[in-house]
Write a structure and sequence with these properties.
Length: 284
């Protein structure tokens, strides 16, 4: 595991932690697309009761919200964290302390929110916390725009992958996230995550290991939701646990784009939800 951490930090030295592959040396303070340095920056940490049911249970999901993002969606609901980068820089041991505190207060897991661009110090912190008695599963709660090289370093460390599957339409991904290759990258990432952890395993109502995919239904079908659902059913697993989400709101810069400057209709949501149900996926 020490060697794994070293390899992770090496990815940060000529940064290719995500598919943008900025190539900057973040260990020396150079900034790439995410505009973040080498030290983790945390916006907040605490029990979260608004996550998926198998993560929440009675004690809540132990969320640690990381500042910044490698994707930068123009409709982000957490834009104050991702775009305005509000948070406090901390140390690896500081993050380990947070994890242990979340365990002490009864959380069911350690849920790292938007962790991709801070992968090396986060896995370093998790392994240090485990040496100090941490026993909770680790949730990798990400945007789904992930490097396969980086994901392979997480094998055996991450217990639960919870990625987004945002867009099957390259034009929408380029327009709203500056990531025209999102869908191709996302499909490969979902397959790699599933290879590592398999379908979601739930014991006594609490998720222990596996893949949980989120898909946010957007107005005017800009995401091509049916294509996403069919890919999951056909190429991942029909036993995949999927949260088809209806909480899209036109926040941050969404009102600059008429097609997403509104809310999805109940009919738009129902179309995606019932198609996923028809395909036999496990729905939250």
């Amino acid at each position: 595991m020490d060697e794994r951490v070293e390899k992770a930090y090496a990815l940060m030295e000529n940064c290719r932690l995500c598919p943008r592959e900025c190539g900057v040396n973040r260990l020396k303070g150079e900034l790439g697309y995410c505009k973040m340095g080498a030290q983790p920056v945390v916006s907040s940490a605490g029990p979260h009761f608004g996550e998926e049911r198998p993560l929440v249970g009675m004690g809540g999901s132990g969320t640690i919200f990381l500042t910044g993002c490698n994707l930068g969606c123009l409709f982000c609901q957490n834009y104050d964290i991702s775009h305005y980068r509000r948070g406090t820089e901390t140390t690896v041991d500081g993050v380990a302390d947070m994890m242990l505190q979340l365990q002490r207060i009864g959380c069911h897991n350690i849920n790292l929110v938007t962790p991709t661009h801070f992968m090396p110090p986060l896995i370093d912190a998790f392994l240090r916390a485990r040496e100090r008695g941490l026993q909770l599963p680790l949730v990798w709660n990400c945007g789904g725009y992930e490097s396969i090289e980086a994901l392979k370093l997480l094998e055996g460390i991450v217990d639960i992958y919870m990625p987004d599957a945002k867009f099957a339409d390259p034009k929408s991904a380029e327009k709203y996230c500056n990531a025209p290759d999102y869908w191709e990258i996302n499909k490969a990432a979902l397959k790699e995550m599933h290879r590592q952890v398999g379908d979601l395993k739930i014991e006594n109502g609490i998720a222990k290991r596996g893949l949980l995919i989120r898909h946010l239904v957007m107005p005017n079908d800009v995401a091509k939701s049916i294509e996403i659902i069919d890919f999951i059913a056909d190429e991942i697993s029909r036993n995949t646990y999927v949260n088809v989400m209806e909480q899209y709101r036109p926040l941050y810069r969404a009102r600059e784009f008429p097609e997403i400057a509104t809310y999805p209709t109940p009919e738009e949501f129902a179309r995606v939800y019932f198609h996923a149900k028809k395909r036999g996926l496990r729905l939250d």
